[in-house]
Structures are given as structure tokens and as C-alpha cells.
Amino acid sequence: MASRSRMGRMGRLAYLCNLLLIFAISLFLCFLTYEKQDLAIVFLPLAICLPVWMISCHVRRWHDLGMSGWHVLLLLIPIANIFILFYLLIAPGVDSPPIDSGYPRRDAALKHDVLPGVDSPTIAGGHSDVPPMNAIWRAFRLVVYVLAILSGLSVLGIMLVTCADVILRLRWINRPFVGAYDIVKILGALSLATSLPYTTAVKGHVAIEYFFHKLNRRGRIAVDSVMRLLTMVLFAFLAWRSVLYGLDFRRTGQVSQTLQFPVFWVPYVIGFCCAIVVLVVGHSLLHPNREMIKP
């Protein structure tokens, strides 16, 4: 059913987090394309990947239960699929994987310090292989770094424009910087938006954890998971509304006050950064003990 390079095993927590992430992305796409149906063709590739992603999660969960991945077909049975899904969410995994998975035993994976539900980078024969998902996360981290650099450049631009405007307003020069207000306003919005993914990845936001540390381990895990899910929903909503806001600006021809510069693309950038934040939080939810970026 599954080759070694694509599918392995998935624990209960990783399975639940993947399903919730798929649901959040699907809900976001529904909201985004409900009012703007012309965007449906843009997100069509992502909409095609979601069912493949979900089937992959189901197959890997069956493998973790020591069963063949072909049991995923049982989810096509009406009504019964509800109970089957509930079973997949609560049933503990077994040590021995099914014959068709081609993956080592769970206890063997633990010897290599591999977390349950995460594929081991070592396959049969002792050869090291980098999972495709790791390459995706590396590219994703590169995007976060690029946005952080843009945020720094935006702050630098604000400083240079402000200093230039102050100098040009001196009495013996008396030539104000035309458009300084527009430039600073746009760069300010960009600096805030593009800094969000990196700040979220390094967990640099201010947090009040007095009551959080009073909870036991399970309570902290539950509260942390709920808050991350709410954060994903919030930023998905912000991304959706930002894109719609940009579309309205483009339709009405909104421009800046002084330079008459088109600004429809600014909400697009903000929406893109909010979408990246959703993925950053999703990564933290799927890998709570793994740092995405070290500050």
C-alpha cells in the first residue's frame, strides 16, 4: 500500500494534529473562495493535495496499529466510518508494523531517539535517507528567514526616510521629503507583518504563564494545544480578510495620499505573512519538543 519513502507510522497525537490542521486549511479555503470564487483556481493545487495528505495520514495510522494500509477503505463505509475514525484516534500503536509498510519496529526506532509518530531517518540496510518532509520544512524556514530580513530592511528604510525628512526640513535647506509619510506608513505595515513568522517561530511573543505553570503536565499540554489551535484559526481568518481587503483596494484603485502609489499589494503581503504564521504554529503543534528556528 505504501512505499518506504512516503509513508511510515503515525501516533495518535500526530494523527489528531494532522487532521485538525487539514480541517483548518480546508475551512480557510472555504471562507476565502466563498465570496471570491475567482480565487478557486488559484488554490486548486492545494485543494487537490489535501485529500492526498489525509489519505496518507490514515494509512500511516493503520500501520501504527499493526494493520495493512488498505484498511483505509473502511472509511468509505457510511456511519461505520465515524466509529472507525474514533478508533483510530484512541487506539494505541503496536510494536510490530504491518508487513506491507516496510518500516522497523517501534522499539527499534526508539533506540535511535525517534519520537513516536515520526518517521525514522534510517531505513532498512542502515542507509541514511532525508525524508521529503524535512526538505519542505527547510524551505519553509528559508521563507521565514527571508521575511525576517525584509522586516529588518523595512525598519532600516523607516529610519533612513525619517532622518532624511528631518534633515531636509532644516531652515537652510527647507525641502521636506515628499512622500515620507506614505513611505513610512507602508514600511511600518510591512515591518510588522513580515516579523510575525520569525517572532512566532522563535517564541518571542510576550506570554504570561503564571497560571499555566500551576497546571500539571497534561493540563499544560491541553491548554497549549487549544491555544495554538485558536491562534491558527485567528491568523487564518486574518489572512483571509487581508486578501479580500487587497482585492477591494485593487478594484477601487486605492492609492497612497501623497505619492499616489498603489497599495493593494500591502494587504496581500500581510495575508501571506499571516498564512505563514498559521504554518509556523502548526509546526509547533505537530512537533512540540522540536525548535523550528533557534533565536
Write structural notes for this entry.
The chain is elongated and about 80 Å long. Helix 1 packs antiparallel against helix 2 (44-64), helix 1 (12-35) runs parallel beside helix 7 and helix 6 (180-201) runs parallel beside helix 8 (265-286). The model is unreliable at 1-7 and 97-132 (pLDDT under 50). It has two domains: 12-129, no CATH class; 139-286, no CATH class. It is built from eight helices and no strands. It has helices spanning 12-35, 44-64, 80-90, 106-111, 132-168, 180-201, 217-252, 265-286. By secondary structure, it is mostly helical.
**CA(first)-CA(last) distance:** 41 Å
DSSP, total strands:
0
* Beta-strand percentage range: under 5%
So how many helices?
8
The major beta sheet can be summarized as: none
Structural class: mainly alpha
Mean pLDDT: 76
Number of domains: 2
Topology as H/E string?
A: HHHHHHHH
Q: Segments where pLDDT lies below 50 for 5+ residues?
A: 1-7, 97-132
The outline comes out as elongated
Helix content: 55-70%
Rg from alpha-carbon coordinates: 24 Å
